[in-house]
Amino acid sequence: MKIAVTGANGQLGRIVIEQLKQRMDASNIVALVRSLDSAKDLGVEARTFDYNKSELLEGALQGVDRLLLISGSEIGQRTQQHVNVINAAKLAGIDWIVYTSLLHVDTSSLNLAGEHIETEKALKESGLTYTILRNGWYSENYTASIPGALNGGAFLGSAGDGQIASAARADYAEAAAIVIADDAHKGKVYELAGDTAYTLTELAKEISVQAEREIPYNNIPEEQYANILLSVGLPEGLAGGLASWDVSASKGDLFDDSKQLSQLLGRATTRIAESVKSVLQNQ
Q: For residue 175, how many other CB atoms are within 10 A of its CB?
C-alpha cells in the first residue's frame, strides 16, 4: 500500500509525513511537492507535483493507492487546482482520497468555504472513495500574533465573544495520518476541532498569566483591524482575510463541541495554554 501526501513540504504536510513514518515503512510514503529540493529532509520518496500542471499530475500519482489531498494555499485558485488533482487521481487508479476541508463548511460564513464546498462536490461526483476531514482552526493561527501582542501591549482582533475551538496543527496532522492508514474511515465526513473553546478575551488572559504582564484583548471593527494588519506589512489579501475570518469567528463559525478530533486521536487535543506556552518559550 502506497500513500501519497500533497503539499508534503508544508507546515501540515511535514507533520503528516512524520506521523505516517511512525505507522508504516517509509518506502510506502510519497511526498508530492512543487520543488524536490524542499523535500530532501523528509526521508521518503518525493515526486514533483504542481496543482496547476494538470498534464503532469497523473504520472506523478502512478503506483499510489491512497492520496491525502491537503487543500492548496492559493485562495481563489483552489477549486480548479483540486479538481485537477481529483481528475488525475481517477485516471491514475487511486483507490481513496482523503481531503482536508473546513469545519462546518456547509453552514460557515467564512469566505474560505466556497472552494471547499466545490471540492467536496467534485469528490462526491468523481466516483472515487473519499473521506473528508473538515478541519477547524489551528491554534497557531492565533498564537502567531503573540509576539506582536507583547510588543504592542494588547491582543487585537474582531472576533468579539466568539467561541474558538482550535487545536494544534500537529493534532490535525496526526488525525490525517490515522485516518488514511485505516480502511475503517472510508466514506466518512469528520468535523474536527479542539476539545475546549475560548474567546480572544480568554486567550489574552492566558497570555497575560504566562507572560506575567497585562495583555488585554482589544476588539475592533473589521476594517480598522485590516488596516492595522496592513500597516505592519501584511499583504492586502491576507490582512482583509484575517479580519473577515475573525468576524466569522464572532458568529460561531470556529466552534464545535463534538470532540471528533480527540476521538480519532484517542487523547485530548492540545490545550490552548500549551500552545501559548510553546510560543513564549521561544521568545
A: 26
75-94 pLDDT per residue, tens: 889 999 999 999 999 999 99
DSSP code of residue 95: -
For residue 102, the cross-strand partners are: 135
Residue 133: alpha-carbon gap to chain centroid: 10
138-166+194-257+268-283 belongs to CATH 3.40.309.10: no
Which neighbouring-strand residues pair with 129? 96
Are residues 222 and 243 in contact, defined by beta-carbon separation less than 8 angstroms? yes
Per CATH, the architecture of 3-135 is what?
3-Layer(aba) Sandwich (3.40)
Q: Which three cell numbers stand for residue 191?
A: 468535523
The CA-based angle 24-1-117, given to 5 degrees, is: 95
Task: Quote the pTM value.
Answer: 0.96
Indicate the pLDDT class of residue 232, thresholds 50, 70 and 90. confident
Contacts of 225 (CB under 8 A, 6+ apart): 156, 157, 158, 242, 243, 246
Which residue, chain included where needed, has cell 476541508? Answer: 101
